[in-house]
Amino acid sequence: MSLNIVEASHKKAKPESEKIPFGRTFTDHMFVMDYEENKGWHEPRIVPYEPLTLDPAAMIFHYGQTVFEGLKAYRTDDDRVLLFRPEKNFERLNLSSDRLSIPPVDEQEVLGYLKELVQLEKDWVPSFEGTSLYIRPFIIATEPSLAVAPSKSYKLMIILSPVGPYFSGGIKPVTINVEDKFTRAVKGGTGMAKTAGNYSSGYQAQAKAVEEGNNDVLWLDGVEKRYIEEVGSMNIFFKIDGEIVTPSLSGSILQGITRTSILELLRKWEVPVNERRISIDELYQAYEDGKLEEAFGTGTAAVISPVGELNWLGKKMVINDHEIGALSQELYDTITGIQRGRKDDRYGWTVEV
Amino acid sequence: MSLNIVEASHKKAKPESEKIPFGRTFTDHMFVMDYEENKGWHEPRIVPYEPLTLDPAAMIFHYGQTVFEGLKAYRTDDDRVLLFRPEKNFERLNLSSDRLSIPPVDEQEVLGYLKELVQLEKDWVPSFEGTSLYIRPFIIATEPSLAVAPSKSYKLMIILSPVGPYFSGGIKPVTINVEDKFTRAVKGGTGMAKTAGNYSSGYQAQAKAVEEGNNDVLWLDGVEKRYIEEVGSMNIFFKIDGEIVTPSLSGSILQGITRTSILELLRKWEVPVNERRISIDELYQAYEDGKLEEAFGTGTAAVISPVGELNWLGKKMVINDHEIGALSQELYDTITGIQRGRKDDRYGWTVEV
Ligand SMILES: Cc1ncc(COP(=O)(O)O)c(C=O)c1O
Ligand SMILES: Cc1ncc(COP(=O)(O)O)c(C=O)c1O
């Protein structure tokens, strides 16, 4: 399909330092594409960033039929702009859409449009250390109908937002509360999909965790409330007695692209890694035995976010003395190095815009 | 707060028969009220029904922070307009909001605005047998931010839609599939809240059920996949060996207002009723023993929707020979009679507009 581009007449001011609050500044343009039952996905276009006009009965407002993605564009020292494994985001978008009964997109085609959008907004990719351009593709159901059934029309949009460094002033390990009451997801539910309802359902647990002095929540499985699943917007890894353990994809956790990349790296490096069920009791036992050597969350936002402390039912696990571990640091340096074009991209993970 | 009313200059044509498709026709006006962190809920207003304008980053599109309600206005034979226990809907709206970290509304105040809106749109309450005016209050998060955190601004809206009879040509018992793979809700999740994400997550199970010749889905609990929870948008009741059994409010099912009303009626009538856990195995055993006498869903849409057939893992339970049972019929007649002003409202359930 041919992409129509309408240039914005007025250009906004770009951030002038690395102090950019997350997800509040948007670039001059956005990508939009529509779906209708008889036309399929059509009318791909880049237009000025502008408000959306929707019927109050549009299904997105009532039954939550929506999916999204999150990835970043990075500026290299020699002023190229790189995306990190973006094809995996559109693959996952379609996986999420399938769960939510949303029609799939042509992954290659939409990736092509994304590249055109980022190309147009190239000057918005910040160059300050640790900054990047956050990319948010999302699909919403737009049919004006209160019938509880899949929508007959959708809108796919891509908006772009320059973001500051996740860690300002050096990597700081986080404190995380193991949630024992609220549930994020369960087998047969939507946990493996990146869909809106999975996030707001965690706000109460998040608020409780923060009140008690934590930064985030570690979710347990919804059935037994024993098996470790993931952190708010991150997958979780542990180094136990020299082996790296991460929860297997049970159907209720998100298949993180950072998680996949780390597993691939560790296997290349011949570090013992194990994707399996791991219970919070087992983790605590490992901690008591002095075998819990490192813990870190992984995701597009931070790449690696070391966990310095876990709080579980009044028990505290302090990990690696609240310091980032050697392996966490190596993974962080490797992946951010590849993303920034400072390390050899030997796996072909980056895509230049 | 004083309610501002802007009248629509153009009035739409009202439906001229009882053949009104559900949730596609909307009246001339809607109610809107805004929330901002420092102002609280403010600027209640009735305005012409018109499209909403929202930033593409508005949080409703990304993290699903939203709740809704559903109730009806009925026209009596002597041309009065009645609401059925509307205070319960605003009580439940606040319960849902609490789960989704949305600030509560003043229930009495919003009920007052709703009455003003219905008063203004009185001519839209259809008079054909079985028709009514469906009322959809909903709250959406509007802050333009991609941070995974509660929104600092919200919009509460109420839209109205004339709807046709749920059953056209007499009550018809439905066929329902007992879902064994997908999960709707789990303890600690959002199942007890009326929030968007709970509905689209059921579309796949719904499509599968319909493909296999059913009308709807019966959900089992998310933990053991054994205990009966509810139907798509209805609570469920069984008559087993003379006793009425309905699943207790486990935290993962919606507290239906029709359910509450039926329990109250049955207790007044001194019919034995039991709110408790009931497993699908137990139900099947009762069926095999010839003790499953009636089954019916309850909700605002149909009031009572008799279940004629349940399909569970290839086993079929035919209930009361695919006919509505005597008790189901009596409950239906009583509640619809009260709603339409044809029966004495001895419990004070209706509110005249
Ligand atoms: C629930 C959840 N888990 C994990 C992740 C990490 O995935 P990725 O590495 O693809 O960013 C994310 C986020 O982006 C997420 O939202
Ligand atoms: C999930 C669910 N269960 C039950 C009900 C029935 O509730 P009520 O009787 O208040 O309409 C509804 C609907 O409205 C619902 O959405």
What is the element layout, followed by pairings?
The structure is a homodimer of 353-residue chains.
Chain A: E1 4-5, E2 29-36, E3 40-48, E4 52-54, H1 60-63, E5 66-68, E6 71-75, E7 81-84, H2 86-99, H3 107-120, E8 132-141, E9 153-163, E10 174-178, H4 197-200, H5 203-211, E11 216-220, E12 228-231, E13 235-240, E14 243-247, H6 257-268, E15 273-276, H7 280-288, E16 292-299, E17 303-312, E18 315-318, H8 326-339, E19 350-352
Parallel strand pairs in A: 1-3, 10-11, 10-17, 14-15
Antiparallel strand pairs in A: 2-3, 2-9, 5-8, 6-7, 6-8, 7-19, 8-9, 11-12, 13-14, 13-16, 16-17, 17-18
Bound molecules: pyridoxal-5'-phosphate (2 copies).
Features:
D-amino Acid Aminotransferase, Chain A, domain 2; 23% helix; alpha+beta; 8 helices; D-amino Acid Aminotransferase, Chain A, domain 1; homodimer; nine-stranded mixed sheet; binds pyridoxal-5'-phosphate; 353 residues
Explain what the structure shows:
- Two copies of one chain form a homodimer.
- The longest helix of chain A has 14 residues, at 86-99.
- By secondary structure, chain A is an alpha+beta fold.
- Chain A is globular, with a radius of gyration of 21 Å.
- Chain A folds into two domains: 4-163, 2-Layer Sandwich (D-amino Acid Aminotransferase, Chain A, domain 1), CATH 3.30.470; 174-339, D-amino Acid Aminotransferase, subunit A, domain 2 (D-amino Acid Aminotransferase, Chain A, domain 2, Alpha-Beta Barrel), CATH 3.20.10.
- In chain A, the strands form two sheets. In chain A, strands 1, 2, 3, 5, 6, 7, 8, 9 and 19 form a nine-stranded mixed sheet that branches. In chain A, strands 10, 11, 12, 13, 14, 15, 16, 17 and 18 form a nine-stranded mixed sheet that branches.
- Chain A is built from eight helices and 19 strands.
- The mean pLDDT of chain A is 96.
- The interface between A and B is large, with 67 and 67 residues.
- Bound molecules: pyridoxal-5'-phosphate (2 copies).
- One pyridoxal-5'-phosphate is lined by residues 70, 230, 233-235, 254, 256-259, 298-300 of chain B.
